[in-house]
Amino acid sequence: MDMKIGFDNEKYLKEQSEEIRRRAGKYGRLYLEFGGKLINDFHALALGLVSEKELAEIYRLTGKINDVLVPIFKGIGITLVDFKVEFGRLPDGSIVLSDDITPDSARFWDIETGMKLDKDRFRHDNGKVGQGYNTVYERLKAELNG
Prior knowledge:
Layout: H1 9-27, E1 33-34, E2 37-38, H2 41-46, H3 52-75, E3 78-83, E4 87-89, E5 95-97, E6 106-110, H4 120-123, H5 129-145
Antiparallel strand pairs: 1-2, 3-6, 4-5
């Protein structure tokens, strides 16, 4: 009998890939977050969730989003420190952006004061979370209506 001892990488990847695909089919979408830990590029590639070409396209699109947003926020006196975006697949398999950018999914700091205008106000117990969110909203609204 030929029995492997130790970790079987191929078996693990096969089983994990099947389970992820099962969950994605069951719920119609898949969050790649398990226990608060996002999977990384290596995992997505190893599990066959994306190809290297698709991953490069995701990075290209994320860069474009950054190139558009940074000047908009700078123009209203806010530093866009960082943001997260989620990508998904349409039924035809094409990759699409499936997220929004808000003070819950990005970090915004006032350029002049350095004041946090995002969920970090709550995390660091700075208080007046709604005030920070409203500041971002009001500045964007004035810019768009101006």
